[in-house]
Amino acid sequence: MYKNYNMKQVTLSLNLDIYLEENDIAFAIDELVESIPVDVFSVFEHRMGTSSYHPKMMLNLILCGYTQSIFSVRKIEAMSKDSIRAMWLTQSQTPNQNN
User: Fold this and answer.
1) Domain-by-domain residue ranges, the chain?
2) What is the pLDDT confidence band of residue 8, given thresholds at 50, 70 and 90?
3) Using CA atoms, how far apart are residues 63 and 67, in angstroms rounded to an integer?
4) Phi, psi (rounded to 5 degrees) for 2
5) Distance separating the N- and C-terminal Cα atoms of the chain
6) Which of 10, 23, 55, 57 could bridge 41 with an S-S bond, Cβ 3.0-4.6 Å?
7) Which distant-in-sequence residues (6+ apart) come within 8 Å of 50 by Cβ?
């Protein structure tokens, strides 16, 4: 089971995409990840323990870090809290490497 992650869900939170430029790399990353068939991610699903972050969200975050030459897990974690681009891609979910 995954934590709730849906790029198409209407929320009342701050609409971060208004802060991104029209040609921002975040839109290309999201389009690339969304083009991957859902069944590809089914191998990562588990039924025991706490719910995990959705693989699409994690891939969005990792690709966002890589496009900014950030390869450290700790720095990507920090970026998820500081970068508007990363916050938009993760829908403000902030993965923690210790969990």
Assistant:
1) 16-90
2) confident
3) 6
4) -110, 155
5) 16
6) 55
7) 99
User: H-helix or E-strand containing 35?
Assistant: none
29-82 pLDDT, tens per residue? 999 999 999 899 888 888 888 888 899 999 999 999 999 999 999 999 999 999
Residue 99: the pLDDT is 63
* Beta-bridge partner residues of 52: 2
Q: Which long-range contacts (CB under 8 A, 24 or more apart) does 57-65 make?
A: 57/5, 57/89, 57/90, 57/91, 57/93, 58/95, 59/33, 60/29, 60/30, 60/33, 60/89, 60/90, 61/86, 61/89, 61/90, 61/95, 63/29, 63/32, 63/33, 64/25, 64/26, 64/29, 64/89
To which residue do tokens 């430029």 refer?
A: 21
